[in-house]
C-alpha cells in the first residue's frame, strides 16, 4: 500500500487544513521537550511569527538514560493544546506506548512515532485503526525497506495518513550524532507516494549544521522539515546542543522561504 505501483499520485496528508505532501514544504518546529508554559508559549509564538505551520514538542520522551528528564506527560499535552489555541498552529507530539494512545490522540493533530518505536508492530497496528495522521520516524538502524514496511503496518489497518521522517541513521561517523541520509528522500519518492520530511536536528545533533542540512533537505525534494528550537538551548532539558535559538530559527526561515520560492 505504501508503493507507488499501487498509488501513482503523491499522497497529501491533510492536517486540519495544512497539507503535507505533493511538493509543499511544511515546517514543523519547536523544542525537543515541552518543559514549561513559558518555554512552550515563547517557542510557539516564534514558530508562528517565522511562518511555520506546525509546533513540535515532546511530552513523553524516549531518553537514553532512565534518569534523564522523561517529559511532562499529560501536562505537556495540555500545554501543547493551549499553544495551538493561542497561535493557530497545528501540533505534533510523540506517542511511545499503546497505553497512552487515546490520550495522545485526543490532544494532538499528528502522532509522532519515534525512531526507537519504528518497529513496535503492536503499536503500529493500533495506529492503523485510528483516523489521525501519523509521522513515522526512520529507525536508528533501519533500512528504507524496513521503514516502508513499518508504514505498511499502519496503512494496512486502514489509516492512509502516514508521513515519513528521515532523522539520520547510525553509522561509523562520530562527528555528528547521526548521519542524515538524504539519499532516502529521492529513494522514498521513487518507491512510495507517501510524504517524506527531513529532521536535520536529530540528523546532525549539532545546531551549527542544522541550517545547511535543512536547505539540503529542501533541495533534495522533501515535503517539509522538523527543526528543534529553544528559547535558551543551553538550559534545555533535552537536545540543547542541536536546538537553534529563536533568532537563528528566524534567519533560517528567511533562507528557507527564499529557497522554496526559487524552486
Ligand atoms: C524527537 O523528535 O525529539 C525524537 C526523540 O526523535 P527520534 O525518535 O528521531 O530520536
Ligand atoms: Mn529531540
Automatic annotation (TrEMBL):
UniProt KW keywords: Transferase
One GO term (biological process): aromatic amino acid family biosynthetic process
Source organism per UniProt: Effusibacillus lacus
Covered range of the whole protein: 71 to 333 of 344
MF term (GO), any: aldehyde-lyase activity
UniProt keyword annotation of Transferase present: yes
Residue ranges annotated for the DAHP synthetase I/KDSA domain, each copy included: 13-260
Signal peptide span: none
Annotated protein name in UniProt: 3-deoxy-7-phosphoheptulonate synthase
Entry keyword Transferase: yes
